[in-house]
């Protein structure tokens, strides 16, 4: 029986965003989102950790080649979000608010459908050095 | 059905402490606590991570406003412990030894009673860059 | 004669920006600025170090109260740039390109005029964990 | 009933290794392991986190003395692997490929047999700042 | 002619301290030192970088054996200050205020007299991740 | 007159090495180089900072395009040293001992001859998180 471990890869991207509910007044958006509601956007360096859990291949000693994982993250996540305005430049956040919570779930879904089914996936996203999100919890 | 994620906030405080059991001899305290038993105290920069797990609000994209969480940590934890002597200046450690383990559980209890019940709470406390504690395990 | 030392304070802000020369064609801007020319902006977590060099006050043991320095940085720099679009929301970068180099020099000038003349000033600005700027060199 | 927490200790070691399957051709090894198959080895600074989960001792406020844990890690792990060639200088990796996955499981087994049975153990191993492994998952 | 380079070693210690001028009133001390004047002390994890500048030895490729430097820092600095109350437990700060500035200069003087004369010395001391001091400037 | 600033780029590589003087006895090498003399090599993750000092271009706001600098570092340094055995796989350290000091000077020379003459160059190399070298001093 194979040993189950978690392998993790860190990547990063830089993006602009704005947090606001379109149907709300400015006052309401400012009350809930504060400075994050700045009309001309602000931005972050996002640090992303992708964690895969599965059996160690007995021959290669790998759970999943982290070079392949890095390439997959580049294609599915970084090429979409890096150096972009999340609200204006992406399909994913045309209507969905680009909070760190929602970005994390979106990244999970983008990678989940590309990964082998036998691997469990977890995403950790640092919006700043002080604020971060983990999914699944 | 809402998606459940974990949102996390880092804060920090600086404090002095001494580890010893009042009923023990000096020799016994030195054997168990070593340098941490220094009679005139020593100190640390404590780095604290507070993790909340719960559903993403579909309208705001938030699990819990991290600005509010930061304010709560300030009121309930930092105002009590920052720039203090944990043994002498706090109610919490008048009789309880201020090990990193006990400080972590105390911080959990201080925040638990202020947070909405539907949110799960976890605390991570770095006493140094090399030693840290997580609660619940 | 007083001992001369350097005291340093780290702060941070988050902002959106776009790098481009208004008089250039899109092709020319893309060739020079690449992804940083994204029309809808992108963003960064900027980490800022402010270094002051001067004599230690013999009575207080301070070169300059870092709490005061932190307040000054907040008023002169963070209130201007944090959670802002540098190109659209600031006077400083209406015509000046907001490269890390230029932001660093602008911050130097904002703080220089508020600080006592006997203190030398140096600014270090991290645009990402991989790219940073120091001024004066 | 005692409170259960997790206490963690960071240590580090530096080692050389090479990833390859002895029965495979050079072409096959290069395809799977790429640069990690370099015949003359390459190396890493490994950062190791050892996590112990168990009850807080009511008298000492400790789960386990982290100084003792640090000594145990030194004897069981660092003395074996630090400043060594994992493929050539260690019994553990004479036939087992020294991938980060396998090193993590080996370290788990080395410490597991020395630790009290009532403590749960988890290992986190950073091979680089970008790649790391957790066991048990 | 030998090439001149700078070699650097990071170490750390944990200590308690209090900032106040003995001849001042409580009000005056609170105004200048704020929370750092807490009567029962507070504390920090100090991160220390020692930099030596000198010629590379052509045979060994070393400027100075960093293992010897680490031992010297342990003997001259850490054994004095680690897990101590700087105000109460040390000769150096019986009358001198233990600000980060003064601690840095004291460490410089302790090491300067033990090091070969042909090596230039510089000290960097982090009191927290946000505040640090460099000497000579 | 242009403003002079320093722009910096971090990169990293992983390599194996052994420190020893070929003409010395084993005993002599062990006395000077200790564990670093392990006959089968050990290894490190090297973190490299390249600093360029020069005038800001008034039109682009750049001192030097850090993307070009990153490409140059890849070609001149990483392709030579990453995932290599410095003693066996490189021309540069066939006879020169690969201490952090010597590696730093070698990297300086490799980049110096590729960079425009009007830019000053400085190299910082972390061999571990605790040991690093700066050249020129």
Spell out the blueprint of helices and strands:
The structure is a homohexamer of 137-residue chains.
Chain A: E1 4-17, H1 26-33, E2 42-55, H2 66-81, E3 84-85, H3 86-89, H4 100-112, E4 120-126, E5 131-135
Parallel strand pairs in A: 1-3
Antiparallel strand pairs in A: 1-2, 2-4, 4-5
Short description:
The structure is a homohexamer of 137-residue chains. Chain A is built from four helices and five strands, in the order E-H-E-H-E-H-H-E-E. Chain A is α+β, with helices and mostly antiparallel strands and 137 residues long.
Structure characterization notes:
The structure is a homohexamer of 137-residue chains. The two termini of chain A are 27 Å apart. By secondary structure, chain A is an alpha+beta fold. The first copy, chain A, has helices spanning 26-33, 66-81, 86-89, 100-112, and strands at residues 4-17, 42-55, 84-85, 120-126, 131-135. The first copy, chain A, is 30% helix and 31% strand. Chain A has a five-stranded mixed β-sheet with strand order 3-1-2-4-5. Chains in contact: A-B, A-C, A-D, B-D, B-E, C-E, C-F, D-F, E-F. The interface between A and B is medium-sized, with 23 and 21 residues.
